[in-house]
Amino acid sequence: MTPESKFDEGDFRNHYFRGERKLEVYNQIQEIVTDLNISIEDMAETALRYILSHPAVSTVIPGMRTIKNVEKNCKVGDGKGLSQESVKKLQDYRWIRNFYQA
Predict the structure, then answer these.
(1) Radius of gyration, CA atoms only, the chain
(2) Which of 44, 101, 30, 32 is nearest to 76 (CA)?
(3) Minimal CA–CA distance to 99: which of 6, 27, 16?
């Protein structure tokens, strides 16, 4: 996702990422990559591992468009979550949103 990302007409993301939201998301991703000392390519795995780091979560249902995505996503289910330090850092990036407000 970059500030220049375009979505087809009728795609829900046009509303979800309206205004300056694409730029905000892009900037936040850059901060996370720097803060966790990871590559942009590691973001999907990091997001899945973050979710799986919570003791109440045992599985996730990620999107997968290619066989490579499926293979990478399956490897994340190895029981190795993120370190507590990384989990704590990521909590600071939480995006509080209310889908029920206009």
Answers:
(1) 15
(2) 44
(3) 16
The whole-angstrom separation of Cα 57 and Cα 37 is 25
Residue in the structure block whose two tokens are 């468009």: 65
Q: How many CB atoms lie within 10 A of CB 37?
A: 8
Q: How far is CA 31 from CA 12, 36, 78, 93, 102, in A?
A: 26, 8, 27, 9, 28
Q: Are 47 and 86 in contact (CB under 8 A)?
A: no
Q: How confident is the model at residue 28 (pLDDT cuts 50, 70, 90)?
A: very high
Q: Which residue has better confidence, 52 or 96?
A: 52
Total number of residues shown for the chain? 102
